[in-house]
Amino acid sequence: MAEHPTGIPIQLEPLVTRVLAPNPSPYTYGGTQTHVVGGRDLAVIDPGPDDAAHVETLLRVIAGRPVRAIVITHHHRDHSPASRPLAAATGAPIVGAAPVHVASETPGLDAAFDAAYAPDRVLDEGESVAGDGWTLTALATPGHTSNHLAFALPETKALFSGDHVMGWATSVISPPDGDMGQYMASLDKLLGRDDRIYYPGHGEAVDQPQRLVRGMLGHRKQREGQILRLVREAPLALEEMTRRMYVGLDPRLIPAAQRSVLAHLYDLQRRQRVSEEGDVWRSSE
Fold first, then answer.
1. Which residue range or ranges hold the Metallo-beta-lactamase domain (predicted)?
2. Best exposed site among 76, 107, 143, 146 by fewest CB in 10 Å?
3. In a domain? residue 212
């Protein structure tokens, strides 16, 4: 992302400006991309982490114009925390994804969630916020998280895809809030649309979205096939299965890979293709 450094607004099209937050990591790529939509008045999509310099950059882009809504695709800590200082500075309501509180026996699993996220208005499928010459319509895309929304900009046939479809990697699906079956259904849902371009939360804009979505569906089905082949050979624990499936993976990403494999296993279990016995998984076929 060196060509789009943090703190410098990039106009992607007349109605859309992107600002990259200074939070690069193995999970966020170059950082979280905040999108400012509109002209005479604005919406701010996924203002990102609560970083004072990033919020100040957003306020410079806003330049005193009315902000009709601060729009949140999902409440991960790299997407929603800056909504609060931005709302305090602009008076704009926080709208979008519903708050979710995940109960889990896995220590630290909720660390990615913004526990203080409290929207003024939750948007359901098909509901919109609008301004002068622009509309953002919510599209339910659960899977990465149970509350994930994408937002369509019908005036230019753009889709703000959040973390559901990204421009650099596939999403991490981490149970219990992440759900592989829902994720696959949400990808299928996007195939039925004719969006011109996706603006994701991380990575470059996607100018051939249908092609990418088909590839993502194929990738997940390939992973599912790997799992089924492995458990047909012998019962396996999650850790060993992940090691065999992700040869050469950056060690920092192994925990995320394990969560995605577990999401596949839970989906296959619901479909009665695998079963869990103690610490191992085995084929039910």
1. 30-202
2. 107
3. no
Residue 34 lies in a domain: yes
Question: Is the pLDDT confidence value at 271 over 70?
Answer: yes
**pLDDT tens profile 83-110:** 999 999 999 999 999 998 766 555 444 5
Whole-number pLDDT of residue 111? 64
pLDDT confidence of residue 110: 52
Q: In this structure, is residue 216 part of a structural domain?
A: no
Q: Supply the CATH number for residue 203's domain.
A: 3.60.15.10
We report the CATH number of the domain holding residue 236 as 1.10.10.10
Question: What's the pTM?
Answer: 0.93
* Amino acid residing at 245: M
Judgement on whether residues 117 and 237 belong to the same structural domain of the protein: no
- Which domain range does residue 236 map to? 223-283
Number of compact structural domains in the chain: 2
Judged against a pLDDT cut of 90, whether residue 246 lies above it is answered with yes
